[in-house]
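Table 4 source record.
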Amino acid sequence: MGKLLVVGTLAFDAIESPFGKTDKILGGAATYIGLAAANFDVSSCIVSVVGDDFPQEYMDLLTDRNISLDGVEVVKSGKTFFWSGKYHLDMNTRDTLATELNTLADFNPVVPDNFKDADVVMLGNLHPSIQLSVINQMEKKPKLIVLDTMNYWMDNSLEELKEVIKHIDVITLNDEEARQLTGEYSLVKAAQKIEKMGPKYVVIKKGEHGALLFHNQSIFFAPALPLEEVFDPTGAGDTFAGGFAGYLAASKNISFENLKNAVIQGSNLASFCVEKFGTERMLTVTKEEIANRLLQFRELTQFNIEIE
């Protein structure tokens, strides 16, 4: 069984979209990554921090899916990271209503000894210094280090982010972030610039318009499945990352051809995530549903054409 180390937030979210709103519910990058990766034959461990207000039932949801929480620090009398946001009608834009770092403000990650040899490390969206600290704690070079980041770190910690990028194999970011990081409008040119920073592979996510995988001069495109119901895009990018990293950790095949499969697997799982609020859909999705939707992806992308 492959080993996957996940670094990211366990959090509370409060979400509002054109289709409804929630009170505080389970959220956080590491939560979505872990739940997505749990759909593959992989042993995973989360490194994160919470306050003692984080319910035991949320812990149990994760451990019941073979996700170790040995790397989760529980701060007594501390409060768990909280984010609140409101989505606009197009579901691609949102307003952040509240961000409370709480225990995350002083987080120093500690990788459990039995995961310092993980096959794949998935660095969720956190401060670059936290991401680098985890890389430095690994006793054995992972087969693959995947990093997710965002424009906030480009605005506030650019040099630290560039330092982390030197040490990773795959970076995942959205099209806006790729353009900001490189100053290039063309995503092809942006990917080429990012590869020169260190990563072998660049994944640029385009939300409802799919994802692009770049490696040297090769490009692969994975569509997003057109859906009848989209309630909440929160966590879709992290679910994509979890499916991507979980599949690669399970298959133990780190080739460009297999990374194509991983992008499809990530896109497939993300399509379930958006169908309900928060983690609700990821907690009920079945292996059969995942397999059937993969067939839909195949039908969406396969065609025969005669070239004279």
